[in-house]
Design brief:
85 residues; alpha+beta; 5 strands; 16% helix
């Protein structure tokens, strides 16, 4: 499973997350990432923003209508997983 590094732009903290799944909806790319590779763990949805040289910029999705819609897509893609909002 691919592991990527995210840098919190507010704190400059580096966090490594596992990419569980990715999808494109309405020409927007989304990642479902988690702190741990398996088991019960916190997961997050990120939306692709842009690319600059070797850096790809994503931002968290936390607006409710968009979050709920993308979560349903990931639930269908990972039908053997259970998500709790």
């Amino acid at each position: 499973m691919e592991k990527i590094r995210f840098v919190d732009k507010d704190t400059d903290e580096v966090v490594e997350l596992f990419v569980l799944e990715e999808t494109t909806v309405s020409e927007k790319k989304y990642l479902l990432v988690a702190e741990d590779e398996e088991g019960d763990t916190d997961a997050y949805i990120f939306r692709y923003i842009s690319e600059d040289d070797d850096e790809v910029i994503y931002e968290p999705v936390d607006e409710d209508p968009e979050y709920s819609a993308i979560l349903k897509v990931f639930e269908e893609l990972l039908e053997d997983s259970e998500f709790v909002k």
